[in-house]
Design goal:
Gyrase A, domain 2; Isoleucyl-tRNA Synthetase, Domain 1; four-stranded antiparallel beta sheet; 14 strands; 56% helix; 10% strand; RNA-binding
RNA sequence: GGUCUGGUAGCUCAGCUGGAUAGAGCAACAGCCUUCUAAGCUGUGGGUCGCGCGUUCGAAUCGCGCCCGGAUCACCA
């Protein structure tokens, strides 16, 4: 709620008290922005107040409207449509609002953290080291990064973290395949990106494994038996045991191949523009988890069975029993997460922990929360699982086995190519050097991809249509970037003409409807940032920037800025444009999207 | 089967802490560049908000039941 709404709401409470002698609270004052088709700025829904006034909605609205406009003078005039009291503020109020916003400049809408502000840790990305990142990871990374920025903008300290799943049977499969059929291939020798190279061997393992099973089945062995007795799988398992035992050959192979993957991931992260303040590795945390679980057994909050396995009994919470340590004493996924959590809370004074992980793991986090609580970690209950929906393609789910997975690097490269083609066709960057133009193509391409993904409600399963994602018209990132570039162009030309952009404009200036509508939209920004933080939703910000841009383009189309002969009006429009550009850029910064100065 | 979750225009999505005649974009059709970037603006057509019942002055929004889809319920991660 901005200060104009606050003043109005409190005025309504006072009016009701004076008129009807009844105290109503803020929740009964339903003030909303007036819909476009009606005249007014804010609308008071009077139905909830009829109980108090004991009069018809129309009469109640008239009485309150009179009081607000004539006694309190917080509104200029009003009209009533079917129990809705539409209030109009005078132009001066809105000019004042614009001046206020402009004065805040880059700070507008953002809350600065103080030393006392809470520390929020956001975990996102969390890749496996056996294959390259794909479209699903992209949604995770974009959401995680944006969420971090949004939480920061709401006045919190944020630590972005990544837990790398660097150990386990999956990486052993890649390692084994490389050892068997790799002929010493390296990223350097092949010119392939490290994560892609390792991914190829993961696929090779899978193919060889399937071939082995098929061969055995053809020889008359049951499928289940063939799988259980797979020699290849046995070798992979053996390699994992060797790794856990610290076998030098295996460990050095593991280190080498993981380093290839990290080098590859770094490139992808850099291209996507995401980063981390602290990276954890499961190879370093799983043992801690095991210790914590064993302590839990001693404390009697966890149960050890006769076969040696350790379980958490969650039946009191309506769930089942959950395994935490295998019969052979090795850790499972849950155990690793417990260890990682403990390590993090030792490293930082975390007030809130947010896990950005897909909704397929809802159950896992429900359990993790309960188990941490059982183990005596006070923060266990309050952990937040930011559960986002899966990404599907128009033809359905992505399946790695069927090769329908969209590779992150390929996708971004495609987007850049399209951005380049469109831009060259339009000739907008003529005169730019090749390097400068390439930089803009990347900004636009990433803007298209990020906006396409972030504009949809994170909780929902989304369809990624490659054809639509490279469309740069309509509700897209490039459309919003374009508007920004356009304002920038006006600013440049203003400077060339020696027009100064004032810090504030005279409050008695009468603004036209489009200008007022634009200011009203700008005034919503702080509430949007707050709502996005509360709802954990970058989509709220994305949809707002779109509405703001549509409003600006209408204004831009209808009124001339530089050719306006009235210097006062021209100055006001310049300030309005500049302020819009700042809000757009700040809004997009919350989504991790850059703005091009030209396009 | 239990739990969770979704169903809004041909397609992709907003709107969901109850409020006015349910909105955008894409796709289709029709206009607007000698004027600040046409990656833009304007207009037309397109809807039983899955179905039913209930609560309410008022339901796409809340509750219950049903239909359809998805996720999950591993000594996988």
């Amino acid at each position: 709620m901005n200060n104009i709404e606050q003043i109005l709401s409190h005025a309504v409470i006072e009016a009701v008290n004076e008129l009807y002698g009844a105290k109503v609270d803020l929740s009964q004052v339903q003030l909303q922005i007036t819909r476009k088709e009606f005249e007014g700025d804010y609308t008071l829904v009077v139905f909830p107040l009829v109980k108090v006034s004991k009069k018809s909605p129309e009469i109640t609205a008239t009485e309150i409207g009179d009081y607000l406009c004539n006694i309190q003078r917080v509104a200029e005039k009003y009209n009533i449509v079917k129990g809705f009291l539409n209030l109009s503020l005078n132009s001066t109020t809105w000019v004042g609002k614009l001046n206020e916003i402009a004065a805040e400049q880059e700070e507008y809408g953002f809350v600065t953290a103080t030393p006392e502000s809470p520390l929020v840790m956001v975990e996102y990305s969390s890749p496996n080291t056996n294959k390259p990142l794909h479209l699903g990871h992209i949604r995770n990374n974009l959401l995680g990064y944006a969420l971090g920025e949004i939480i920061k903008a709401n006045g919190n300290h944020v630590v972005k973290t990544n837990i790398v799943n660097d150990r386990g049977i999956h990486i052993c499969k890649s390692m084994l395949a490389w050892q068997k059929w790799g002929n010493g291939e390296t990223p350097e020798a092949t010119g392939k990106k490290g994560d892609h190279l390792v991914g190829e061997y993961y696929v090779k393992f899978d193919k060889a494994y399937k071939a082995e099973i098929a061969e055995k089945v053809a020889a008359g062995i049951e499928k289940e038996r063939a799988e259980a007795n797979s020699e290849l799988m046995a070798e992979a398992r053996e390699m994992l045991l060797k790794w856990e035992a610290g076998d030098e050959t295996v460990v050095s192979l593991w280190k080498m191949m993981n380093s290839w993957v990290y080098a590859g991931f770094d490139v992808t992260y850099k291209t996507m523009g995401v980063d981390f303040d602290k990276i954890y590795y499961e190879s370093e945390t799983y043992a801690i988890g095991r210790d914590v679980v064993l302590e839990g057994v001693e404390k009697g909050v966890l149960n050890r069975r006769e076969d040696g396995s350790v379980w958490a009994d969650l039946t009191a919470d309506g769930l089942d029993e959950k395994l935490l340590l295998r019969r052979d004493g090795t850790s499972v996924y849950m155990t690793q997460d417990i260890g990682t959590a403990k390590m993090r809370f030792n490293d930082y004074a975390i007030d809130k922990m947010i896990y950005v992980v897909g909704n397929e793991q809802n159950y896992h986090f429900q359990v993790l929360s309960l188990v941490l609580d059982k183990l005596g970690f006070s923060w266990g209950k309050d952990l937040v699982h930011f559960s986002y929906g899966m990404v599907e393609l128009p033809e359905g789910k992505m399946k790695s086995r069927e090769g329908t997975v969209v590779d992150a690097d390929d996708l971004i490269a495609d987007m850049v190519k399209t951005a380049r083609e469109v831009s060259e066709e339009l000739g907008k960057l003529d005169g730019y050097s090749k390097e400068e133009a390439e930089r803009i193509y990347r900004i636009v391409a990433l803007g298209a991809l990020k906006y396409f993904i972030l504009k949809v409600d994170p909780k929902k399963t989304m369809t990624f249509n490659p054809r639509e994602s490279i469309d740069f018209n309509g509700n897209t990132g490039p459309f919003i970037q374009y508007t920004y570039a356009r304002i920038n162009s006006v600013m440049r030309k203003a400077a060339e003409n020696g027009y100064e952009i004032p810090a504030a404009i005279a409050s008695n200036l009468q603004m036209n409807g489009k200008e007022l509508a634009l200011i009203k939209n700008l005034s919503r920004f702080p509430a949007i940032v707050a709502e996005a933080g509360k709802a954990y939703s970058p989509a709220v910000v994305a949809n707002y920037t779109y509405e703001l841009v549509k409003e600006y383009n209408q204004f831009y189309h209808e009124y001339s800025i530089l050719n306006e002969t009235d210097a006062v009006k021209r100055a006001a429009r310049l300030l309005l444009s500049k302020t819009t550009a700042i809000v757009l850029r700040k809004g997009f910064s919350l989504l991790g999207i850059e703005m091009p100065e030209r396009m």
